[in-house]
Every structure is written in structure tokens, then in C-alpha cells.
Amino acid sequence: MGLDFDVLEFCKKLRQNRPPPYQCPLEKCDKVYKSLCGLQYHLVNYDHDNPTPATPTVVRNICRKKGRSRAAVPTGDIALQSPPKEALTFAEAQKVVQFEIDGKISRIPIDQPLPIISLEEWEKKNAELEKPLPVVEPPPEPQVKLPEASFRVRLNFIILLDI
């Protein structure tokens, strides 16, 4: 990395001698940090010999109020809105083509070969699919006979009652 000093000792001395903000001590680096932790991390991890080009910073709208944050309430008729669509990860998006037909999402892997057919073949195949199927009568249901009750009278049956 090209640092010829001890970063930890440098940060300890800097804490005793100067208040924030802290600037990177290397000549060609103009980075400024609000804390010594940030400066120390920069000195240890940033490669000053091969600096990367600056990336544009993202401006965020930060709410400075304390307490709970509330989610935005959607306006309009919620019932008319379509359900959220399942998103692809970056790795999945690199391997799949996704499209929507009649509200149905279809995904085709990019390594899957797709057959190419002419319009005439397509129409012929669809005509075969649209032919009415022959009506097949279902077999008759078997007749199930319910059991019949049977009994006999016993003449020598005695009932004992406790009174």
C-alpha cells in the first residue's frame, strides 16, 4: 500500500493534537473524515498507489426526526392494483429471459434451445389442438346394495330391573 508509518500511532497522536475533521496525510489524497475511525479504516484499506475513480454519490432524503418512522400509505383503490411481481436476483437475471403474456410471467433459461417453426407449421399444430375431442361416456357407476336389517324374537329373554 505504500504507507511508511504506523497508522495506529498516527491516529493516537492526531486524536491528542487535533479536533475533527481529519484529512488523509498522503499528498495526492484529498479525502476528509469526520472521525478517526473513518480515517484509520481509509489508511488501512484504501490502495493509494492504485486509486479507483470516484463513484457518484447517491443523495438520500434523510428524516432527522426521532421516533418511529411510518410507511407511506398507498393512495387509490388497492383492490385495483396488481399484486407485486417476484423480482429476479442479479445472478438469475443473467441466466433467464423473463416476459409477461396475459398477466402470466414466463421465464426461459438462456441456455435452453428453442425450436424455430414456420407460421404454417404453427397454424397446423394449433388446428390439431383445437379439434374437438371425442366424447367418451363415463362407465356406469356400480350399484351398491344397502344391507337389510334382520331380527328374530327370543321367547326366553328375561329383563332384570333393579328398583
Brief rundown of the structure:
The protein is of the alpha+beta class and 163 residues long. It has four helices and four strands, in the order H-E-E-H-H-E-E-H.
What does this structure look like?
Residues 22-53 form the C2H2-type domain. This is Peregrin. InterPro entries: Znf_C2H2_type. It is a single chain. The chain has 163 residues and is of the alpha+beta class. It has a domain at 7-45. Helix content is 23%, strand content 10%. The chain is built from four helices and four strands; from the N terminus they run H-E-E-H-H-E-E-H. The chain has helices at 7-17, 36-45, 90-93, 119-130, and strands at 22-23, 32-33, 96-101, 104-109. The strands form two sheets. It has a two-stranded antiparallel ribbon. It has a two-stranded antiparallel ribbon with strand order 3-4. Helix 1 (7-17) runs antiparallel to helix 2 (36-45). The chain is elongated. The termini are far apart. The model has no long low-confidence stretch (mean pLDDT 75).
How many beta-strand segments?
A: 4
Please estimate the helix content: 10-25%
| Shape category | elongated
Poorly predicted tracts of residues: none
Widest sheet: strand ordering: 1-2
Largest sheet: 2 strands, antiparallel
Order of helices and strands: HEEHHEEH
Main attributes of the structure:
single chain; two-stranded antiparallel ribbon; 163 residues; 10% strand; alpha+beta; Znf_C2H2_type; elongated
Layout of helices and strands:
Elements: H1 7-17, E1 22-23, E2 32-33, H2 36-45, H3 90-93, E3 96-101, E4 104-109, H4 119-130
Antiparallel strand pairs: 1-2, 3-4
Helix pairs in contact: 1-2
